[in-house]
Design brief:
Number of strands: 18
Strand order of the largest sheet: 2-3-4-1-7-8-9
CATH architecture of the largest domain: 3-Layer(aba) Sandwich
Helix content: 25-40%
Bound molecules: zinc ion
Distance between the termini: 39 Å
Strand content: 15-25%
Largest sheet: 7 strands, mixed
């Protein structure tokens, strides 16, 4: 099947398998290339091979942002499959993923450059939206720059999250915040990381500490909106990607650098105490009740995130989601000594 295969790239392996079975007029065979599952299909009008990438192949890190490989195995598999492909179909809604996949496939077979098309959900084929890809790329670069700025406090917090945190000085309902432009993703991240609690939402002690640690301009929507406007201008082609990044870096460099406040982790709220129902706070070392002082020790190298609205079936402790060396584990009971459903963090899942 050398030379006339249609190579189809999807977001992930589940999408790839679904697409392979949808296209198949005959047999579907699965195999692995660089341990990445791929599906070979007799699609009627010729053979097709489908692969799912699992996310962006390159991501930016640092300030200035440097793009480094984020998924080596799928990239290597894509390069190999491209060698025997006659055309390339990018079945993804992410223009940046489409552009990255095209560039990597063309390293394997430069002729694919002209034969690369994006497939919309309705089946129509079009060229890659390079402006949209640039806008998404610069948005990720802005996140990388901002993460460096926020490292002393919490590098996971995005600019838009701080705006949401700024709005919650008084308890405020989530739908009110969302109508004012706060995205659900920001609310979820703030809640998981213990900065925002309850409905109406209010700031935990750690949320208050973040607000006093950062430059006040970052709590106002104007700063974040300015960056979004530059990113949008890249998408319209009225601002170059390089100019947008330069402006964003200058804006962030002009902010007062945050210092890590004392007691930040202890003030990140995880849930309610099973003994006295007060709030329990903590993200590293231990989780402690702000009322009765009941506490759970956390293993080293573990960061605990909240899993709002959940408690242990056995002991009523608020469940945590452990982050172990950057990997998110399944929700677990934090009581490693008293509860039979022990937090066995040596078996990282
Ligand atoms: Zn308590
Ligand atoms: Zn328990």
């Amino acid at each position: 099947m050398a030379g006339d295969v249609r190579l189809i790239v999807t977001d992930n392996s589940t999408a790839a398998r679904t697409m392979a079975h949808r296209l198949a007029k005959g047999k579907v065979t699965d195999r692995e290339v660089h341990r990445v599952p791929v599906w070979d299909v007799d699609a009627g009008e010729g053979d097709a091979t489908v692969i799912g990438l699992g996310g962006l192949l390159f991501r930016p890190r640092g300030d200035p942002p440097e793009w480094t490989p984020a998924r080596r195995a799928p990239a290597a598999a894509l390069r190999i499959l491209a060698r025997s492909a006659a055309s390339l179909t990018l079945a993804t809604a992410d223009p940046l993923l489409a552009g990255q996949a095209r560039d990597v496939a063309c390293e394997g077979r430069p002729l694919l450059l002209r034969a690369a098309r994006v497939e919309a959900p309705d089946g129509t084929l079009r060229h890659i939206d390079d402006l949209a890809a640039h806008a998404r790329a610069v948005a990720l670069e802005a996140e990388a720059v901002f993460a460096v700025h926020m490292t002393p406090v919490d590098s996971e917090l995005r600019a838009a999250d701080l705006v949401a945190l700024g709005m919650a000085g008084e308890p405020v309902r989530r739908d009110v915040m969302m109508r004012a432009g706060v995205e659900a993703e920001s609310l979820r991240r703030l809640e998981d990381r213990g900065y925002l609690v309850d409905e109406p939402a209010w700031r935990s002690p750690a949320g208050d500490l973040v607000c006093t640690a950062v430059d006040p301009a970052l709590l106002r929507s104007k700063t974040s909106a300015t960056m979004v406007a530059w990113i949008d201008a890249v998408g319209r082609g009225t601002l170059t990607r390089a100019d947008a990044l330069r402006r964003i870096r200058e804006l962030v460099a002009g902010m007062r650098p945050p210092q890590r406040p004392d007691g930040l982790d202890a003030g990140r709220i995880i849930g309610n105490c099973p003994e006295c129902d007060e709030w329990m706070g903590g993200a590293r070392d231990r989780i402690r009740c702000m009322g009765c002082g009941l506490s759970y020790r956390l293993p080293r190298h573990v960061e605990a995130l909240a899993v709002p609205g959940t408690i242990c079936d056995t002991c009523d402790a608020p469940l945590i989601r452990p982050i172990i060396r950057g990997r998110r584990g399944e929700p677990r009971c934090p009581d490693a000594t008293g509860c039979p459903t022990r937090l066995d963090l040596n078996v990282a899942r």
